[in-house]
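Record 1 of the preview.
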Amino acid sequence: MQAIAEVVSSSVTSVVAQSLTRDDELSLSDNRARFGSFVKIASGSDDLEIFAVIHDVVTGPIDGVHRTSAFGLNREQLRQEQPQIFALLRTDLHAAIIGYKQRTKAYQHLPPRPPEVHDFVYVADKKDIEAMTADFEFLRLLAAVPTVPADELLAAAVREAYSAQGQQKTFLIKAGQALSQLFRSDYERLVSVLKKIKPQE
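->
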């Protein structure tokens, strides 16, 4: 399995990983690093695999010295006339941690320690996503993410899990029941999230 990013900052609740794709267009259009998708971090020598959901993808200068500027050119023109500017950009994936596996056993809560800087980040496979979304406790953790609209993140993560599980209607029903418990005192918010989850026809 090929890594898509490398951890540059972490805590027990969140992680920031720099994309390993050199070209900004590829890293932004890469479906593996999309909002709401599940990733796995193979961390350290204690058989700890940490799982997270991407809640932001940010592209910008590689440091505080180089600043991006508008050139008035489309992307193809930029590649022909200013190809060096793409080497001055980096894409960071921001993700909320939702659980971990240790010695093949899955836990749907925060890990005992954060991922380590320079750990590699991989796309979570179908089996891992099923394990991390089995009891919907991940919804509670995602609802507490402060830096993005939590309703959008919840809906995107449910759509991703639904797709990974073969678009089983029973999964959507159970997700709706879990959300109704989570937002039992906020009916309008519940309805808003459910509308965003609706699969595209």
